[in-house]
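User: Quick sanity check before I run a bigger batch. Here is a single chain. Can you write out its predicted 3D structure?
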Amino acid sequence: MKALLAAAVLAIAGVVTVHAADIAPVTAHWTKLGKDFSALVYYVDEPDGFHVAVTTQQGAREKAAVARFEAVLTTGQSAAVSTPRAAGEAPAKMVLTNAGGHLHIAEPNTAVSAR
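Assistant: Done. Predicted structure follows.
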């Protein structure tokens, strides 16, 4: 059931690019994590906390390397997802926080425009 719900959410969700976001349950959020990385985030509110899923993509869509990360966050807890950058540069890091009634997403400031 959760997989079906997640697929439906991803199919109908709007795409938003910002430096921070607060999203409601079952709302997808897309962000650019650098020149060649992007991530799609959504969560489901369950009795034990927010079940958060992050799917990252690297490279062109037709040849993308994809990774999926999942976490359960109780109120006040945070998790980070980071992607590498060039040698000597800090990784692009996105921090996800269960802020009570919504998920707060603190995104890296990137100088890359959305495609």
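The first helix runs from residue 2 to 12.

User: Great, the batch can go ahead then.
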